[in-house]
Amino acid sequence: MEPINKIPVAILGATGMVGQRFVQLLARHPWFKISALASSERSAGKTYQDACHWLLEGNIPAEISKMVIQPVQPTLDAKIVFSALPASVAGKVEPTFADAGYAVCSNASAFRYEEDVPVIIPEINHDHTALLSAQWKKRGWKGTLVTSPNCTTTGIALPLKPLHEAFGINKVFVVTMQAVSGAGYPGISFLDIEDNVIPFIGGEEQKIETETQLLLGKMEGNLRLPANITISAQANRVSVKEGHTICLSIGFAQKPSQEEIISVLENFKGIEGTPNLPSKPKQILIVRQEEDRPQPGKDRHVNNGMSVTVGRIRTCPILDYRMVTVSHNTLRMSRSVQS
Ligand SMILES: NC(=O)c1ccc[n+]([C@@H]2O[C@H](COP(=O)([O-])OP(=O)(O)OC[C@H]3O[C@@H](n4cnc5c(N)ncnc54)[C@H](OP(=O)(O)O)[C@@H]3O)[C@@H](O)[C@H]2O)c1
């Protein structure tokens, strides 16, 4: 029996790579009930099973497969919309939903850098929702718009947050090895990526640098002050289906010992007041001691894809310490805005 008071939610871009994760996760969510699906003109009017090329493990949830896809218009029967639209489309339609009174939780980058739009990872900066009062004042919307960060930034900002709080970080050098599913569906052609590394992902390096500063920033009243950390990122696409691997070199204001780094990461429970959300993992950051971990093939699904795994923590002859992280690009991402 379903609880009676589930909140009705819609998914925009429901047929895409991230939209499918939303469908999969929301179909069994304790608080939400999928009440509408919306996608492009190509899909609108078709049933979900006819329009969607399902790419995830298992089947389309039975109660969703026959739902008819609607156009992306702010007339959907829902209170919250989870947006998995391309940024170019999101930029036009998400404000129309917020204006009509929906709470818009977006995975797209279109509004991430606006000063009145929170970019949220609940465990590290849920307090940035204080920006919403400035958003209401500035935009006059009846609803709201919050965003999740880029999928790569998540595997960087989550482990950096407790380290920054404890020891102060002033420099970070980042090299990413990003999964092909991060490019959406159909994404990159097999012939381009098989047996290959592509050392360019449009806009990604700038996103990593800016979003990490925003996420690690502090609220002062209703103003968000980005963290004063110099970040240099190099982004690469590699032949892995899911899970981004990230190499970090970190310079600290107060250089900690290796044991202190491990202890801070393992004991991180989220910043003060982190809500006990249904998908919050018991262990947010998992530290592996083996010399060859983390690996996306072995670590991306840990705690349902909600934990970030950190390993290879060692000193760095250029900055202070080096480490490697693995995080799931679609599971962690879409849940961050679902709670
Ligand atoms: N893939 C990831 O790991 C990842 C992670 C984090 C964030 N994101 C972000 O999440 C968003 C979605 O990414 P994705 O990888 O899921 O992309 P995708 O697989 O290409 O899916 C795009 C979705 O948007 C719909 N759509 C496209 N053009 C539209 C239009 N003009 N009007 C209405 N709907 C339209 C598509 O519907 P049809 O099927 O009907 O064409 C599809 O449902 C992007 O902003 C991306 O940057 C992706």
Structure write-up:
The chain has helices spanning 17-26, 48-51, 62-65, 87-99, 122-125, 132-139, 151-167, 190-193, 204-215, 258-266, 296-299, 302-305, 331-336, and strands spanning 7-12, 32-39, 70-71, 80-83, 103-106, 144-147, 169-178, 197-198, 218-220, 223-225, 230-238, 244-252, 285-287, 308-315, 321-327. It is built from 13 helices and 15 strands. It has a seven-stranded mixed beta sheet with strand order 8-11-7-12-15-14-13, covered by helices on one side. Strands 3-2-1-4-5-6 form a six-stranded parallel beta sheet, with helices on both faces. A two-stranded antiparallel sheet has the order 9-10. The two termini are 23 Å apart. It is an alpha/beta fold. Helix 7 runs parallel beside helix 9. The radius of gyration is 20 Å and the shape is globular. The protein folds into two domains: 7-110, Rossmann fold (3-Layer(aba) Sandwich); 151-328, 2-Layer Sandwich (Dihydrodipicolinate Reductase, domain 2), CATH 3.30.360.10. 29% of the residues lie in helices and 24% in strands. Bound molecules: NADP nicotinamide-adenine-dinucleotide phosphate. NADP nicotinamide-adenine-dinucleotide phosphate binds next to helix 1 and helix 4.
